[in-house]
TrEMBL record:
The keyword NADP applies. Residues 1-273 form the RmlD-like substrate binding domain. Belongs to the dTDP-4-dehydrorhamnose reductase family. Keywords: NADP, Oxidoreductase. The keyword Nucleotidyltransferase does not apply. Pathway: Carbohydrate biosynthesis; dTDP-L-rhamnose biosynthesis. CDD domains: dTDP_HR_like_SDR_e (cd05254). One of its GO terms (biological process) is O antigen biosynthetic process. Catalyzes the reduction of dTDP-6-deoxy-L-lyxo-4-hexulose to yield dTDP-L-rhamnose. GO terms for molecular function: dTDP-4-dehydrorhamnose reductase activity. This is dTDP-4-dehydrorhamnose reductase.
Length: 278
C-alpha cells in the first residue's frame, strides 16, 4: 500500500514512518507540501497516487491559536478540506488526526465517538471544522481523535517535565484529566485501523485517564526522580486558551481497537529514552 504522510516531521509522523515500514510511505513535511494550498495538494495526490493519505499535519499551538485564529484554522480546517477534496477526486482513503479538544470536558465521564462536540477554544473549533470538512468531502475516511500525544523526541509534556526534574519541587495541574498517548502506540493502532475499512470517527488514545499531576508522578516514578510533585489548580497557571477539565477518551466502535493503558505507554517512553542515551 502506498501511503502519503503529511506532517511527517512531527511526533506522530516520525512514529508512523517506523510502524508503517512494511508499506511504501511517502513522508512529506510542511516544506514539501503545504496542505493549505489546494492546487499543491491536488497535484501531489495526483502525481503520487496513494491508496491512503494520512494527515498528521496540524497547528498544535493551542494558546497561539487564540491570537491567530485565521492561521490556526487554515491549517486545522482548510488543510483537511483540501486533502478531502483531493482524496475524493483520486479515489484515495483519508485518515485525519483530530483531538479531544473538540469536547468541553463537562460531561464528567469519558467521551465516546458519538458524544456531542462543544469546543472551548479556537484550536478545538478549528479541529472540529476540519473533521466536518473531511466528512463532507471524502466518503472513505477515518477521523481519529487522540489526546495528550508525546514521543521520545520533540516538544511535549513528558520531555518538558524531564527538564524540570532538578528543581526543588514541581507544581503541576491536577484538575485537568485526559488520556496520555504514546505516539508509537497510536501509530500501531492506526495501522490496525486502516485494515478494517470501517470508515468513520474513532477515539484512539492511551487507555484510561489521569491528570497532568498523575502523569507527572508516574513519569518521575519510572525515571527514579525524587523531586516532590505538588498538585495545583488550573487557576494557578492562567493560559489564553481554556482547556477541558475532563476529556478522557474511550471508544465504542466496532471492531474494537484499543491502545495499551497510558501507564504502559509511559513505561515504553522511558525505555526508549534510556536506549537513546546509551
Amino acid at each position: 500500500m502506498k501511503v502519503l504522510l503529511t506532517g511527517a516531521g512531527g511526533q506522530l509522523g516520525r512514529a508512523v514512518q517506523v510502524v508503517f515500514g512494511g508499506h511504501e510511505v511517502v513522508a512529506l513535511g510542511h516544506g514539501a507540501l503545504d496542505i493549505t494550498d489546494l492546487a499543491a495538494v491536488r497535484a501531489a495526490v495526483a502525481a503520487l497516487r496513494p491508496a491512503l493519505v494520512l494527515n498528521a499535519a496540524a497547528w498544535t499551538d493551542v494558546d497561539g491559536a487564540e491570537s491567530d485564529p485565521a492561521g490556526a484554522c487554515r491549517v486545522n480546517a482548510l488543510g483537511p478540506r483540501n486533502l478531502a477534496l483531493a482524496c475524493a477526486g483520486a479515489g484515495a482513503v483519508l485518515l485525519h488526526i483530530s483531538t479531544d479538544y473538540v469536547f468541553d470536558g463537562r460531561a464528567g465521564r469519558p467521551y465516546h465517538e458519538y458524544d456531542a462536540t462543544v469546543p472551548l477554544n479556537v484550536y478545538g473549533a478549528g479541529k472540529l471544522a476540519g473533521e466536518e470538512a473531511v466528512r463532507a468531502h471524502c466518503p472513505r475516511h477515518y477521523i481519529v481523535r487522540t489526546a495528550w500525544l508525546y514521543g521520545a523526541e520533540g516538544r511535549n509534556f513528558p520531555n518538558t517535565l524531564r527538564g524540570l526534574a532538578e528543581r526543588p519541587e514541581v507544581r503541576v495541574v491536577d484538575d485537568q484529566h485526559g488520556s496520555p498517548t504514546y505516539a508509537p502506540h497510536l501509530a500501531r493502532a492506526l495501522l490496525e485501523l486502516v485494515e478494517t475499512q470501517a470508515w468513520g470517527t474513532w477515539h484512539l488514545a492511551g487507555s484510561g485517564g489521569t491528570s497532568w499531576y498523575g502523569l507527572t508522578c508516574e513519569l518521575f516514578r519510572a525515571l527514579g526522580v525524587q523531586t516532590p510533585v505538588v498538585p495545583v489548580a488550573t487557576a494557578e497557571f492562567p493560559r489564553p486558551a481554556e482547556r477541558p477539565k475532563y476529556a478522557v477518551l474511550e471508544s465504542i466502535q466496532s471492531p474494537a481497537i484499543r491502545l495499551p493503558p497510558w501507564e504502559e505507554g509511559l513505561a515504553e517512553f522511558v525505555r526508549e529514552i534510556d536506549r537513546n542515551s546509551e
